[in-house]
Amino acid sequence: MRLGWLAIVVLIGGITAAAAQGPASTAPKQIKVHLVNSAGEDAGVATFKTVKNGVKVKLELKNLRFGMHAVHIHENPVCDAPDFAGAGGHFNPDGRQHGFLNPMGHHNGDFPGGISIGEDHAGEATFVLQSISLDPGAPNSLFLHGGTSIVVHAKPDDQKTNPSGDSGNRIACGIIQR
Ligand SMILES: [Cu+2]
């Protein structure tokens, strides 16, 4: 019975969508993104969730090299190991420069910190990014132009060097799509 009602609600929703649909009605509340490392191995998961002041990003990563690593949202939904060059530059619809310490900053896809990977090659970190959205209709939507990607770098982010924080090679990547 419950499924039946759901189906009806979905149907009505679909019929009225063209007229009544605000972008928020189709925005996923949460998405999970799977990352791969340069060797094509599973590098863990990033979970994106809409919160009051932005999007909360929880990183649960593995199979990565020990140390601090920069993390960014990049502009293309492409993760082409081993160098992930296809991910393109940082997601930056607002047209700013890189880094939270840059007076001209920051990119929409910049993270205020990085992730610390332990000797077990795993690590966790959580951030709230205020300049991105899961709302497909928003100008700063992660789903703009077919999606974006989340990229982990070999080095930490200095938060000021344009355009990429002197963060070195790309060592993991996950495609962000609806
Ligand atoms: Cu990057």
List keywords for this structure.
178 residues, 1 helix, binds copper (II) ion
Describe the structure.
This protein is mainly beta. The chain has one domain (23-176): Immunoglobulin-like (Sandwich), CATH 2.60.40. Helix content is 11%, strand content 31%. The chain has a 7-stranded antiparallel β-sheet, with no helix packed on it. Strands 4-6 form a two-stranded antiparallel ribbon. It starts with a helix and ends with a strand. Residues 6-23 have low confidence and may be disordered. Copper (II) ion binds at residues 72, 74, 90, 151, 153, 164.
Bound molecules: copper (II) ion
Regarding CATH, which class?
Mainly Beta
Instruction: Estimate percent helicity.
Output: 10-25%
Number of domains: 1
Spell the H/E element sequence: HEEEEEEEEE
What's the short story on this structure?
The chain has 178 residues and is mostly beta strands. Helices cover 11% and strands 31% of the residues. The strands form two sheets. The protein has a seven-stranded antiparallel β-sheet with strand order 5-8-9-1-2-3-7, with no helix packed on it.
Topology:
Layout: H1 2-20, E1 30-37, E2 42-51, E3 54-61, E4 67-69, E5 71-74, E6 115-117, E7 123-129, E8 148-153, E9 170-176
Antiparallel strand pairs: 1-2, 1-9, 2-3, 3-7, 4-6, 5-8, 8-9
The structure holds copper (II) ion (CU).
Copper (II) ion binds next to strand 5 and strand 8.
